[in-house]
Amino acid sequence: MAYLSGFASVAAALYYRETLSWQWQLMRAVAQSQRFQFRNRHISKNIRYGRYPRNRLDVFYPEVGDNKPVMVFVHGGSWASGDKSLYIPIADKFLPEDIVVVLINYGLAPTHTYPYQSKDVARAIDWTFRNIRAYGGNPNNITLVGHSAGAHISSLALFDERFLEVYNRKASDLAGFIGMSGPYDLPDLLEFLKIERGYSGDLVWNSLDRPENIRLASPIRNLRDDVCPVLLLHGEDDDTVPVRSSKQFYSALLETNNPVQLKTYPGVSHAGPIINALNHSRKNPVNVIEDMCAFIKRDVNIAPALPTAALRELPAAGATT
Hints:
Layout: H1 2-32, H2 34-39, E1 43-48, E2 56-60, E3 68-74, H3 88-94, E4 100-104, H4 116-131, E5 137-147, H5 149-159, H6 162-165, E6 176-180, H7 186-197, H8 202-205, E7 230-235, H9 244-255, E8 260-265, H10 272-278, H11 288-296
Parallel strand pairs: 3-4, 3-5, 5-6, 6-7, 7-8
Antiparallel strand pairs: 1-2, 2-4
C-alpha cells in the first residue's frame, strides 16, 4: 500500500510539474510582451460581464476600422487556476492580424464547478455580441477559442444548448470555435490518467459539482448538428490530455454532420500549441498562429455589422453592460 501511495504521489507530482512548467512559460511570454501594453493604447481592461468577482474581461482592439473579426479566448489551468493577464501575448500576436481580442476570466474550481464555468463562458459570449461593435468588432464574426480546460468548458457552452439559450442565442450564431488540447470526454480522460499516468484525476473530479455529472459535463456526449464550424488543434506528444481526445471529438463531429477540421502537431506536448502561440521565438516550426488566423479569417459569407461612428463611450473598467 505504501508503494502504491508513493507511486500515486510521484504521478501527481509529475502532473502538477507540467502545470507549473506551463505557468512558468506563460509568465516568460508575458514578460516578453510587456512592451506591447505600453505601445498599444487601445485596451479596455477588467470590464465586468457578470456579477461574480472573476466575471471580468479585457478587450484589445485596433485604432481604426469596423467589422473586424473577433476572438474570445478562454484560458486553461486544470479548471482551478489561470488568469487572463497571463495571455496578453495572445493579443500581441493577433491584433496585428486585424483581429479584435477578448480575454476572459471565469470562476475557478473548487468554488465554481460544472455547470457554472460554462455559464460564465456563455455570459461572456453574450457580452461580446452586445458590446463588441464599440471596439470595431463584428458581432457576426466571433470565434470562440479555448485551451485545455478552457476548450472543455467553451465547447460545453456551445454544444449543450442550455447555456446559450438563456441569452436567446445558439452556437450557430458564432463564426467558429477553436479547441486547443481539449478534453472532450471526461470518463475517457480519467481512464487515460489512471492507466497511463497512475493519477486519480482529482483535478477532473474537483471540476464537477457532483460525480454523477461526469457524462453530462462531457461535450462529446452533447453533440448536435447545428453548431458553428470547428477547428481542433492538438499536440501528438500530449501526455496530459491525449491526442485521441481531439481525434475522437473530430470523428463524433463528422458523424453529426458538423463542419470540423483537425490539425495535430508531431512532437508537441499539452502546452505546446498555446506556448507556440504566445512565444516570440521564430524557431518553432509549428504554425499555430497561421492555422488559427486562416480559420478565423477564412472566406465565408459573414454579414458586416452596422458601422459604429467611432470608438467612443466605451464601457469603463468595472462597468457592467
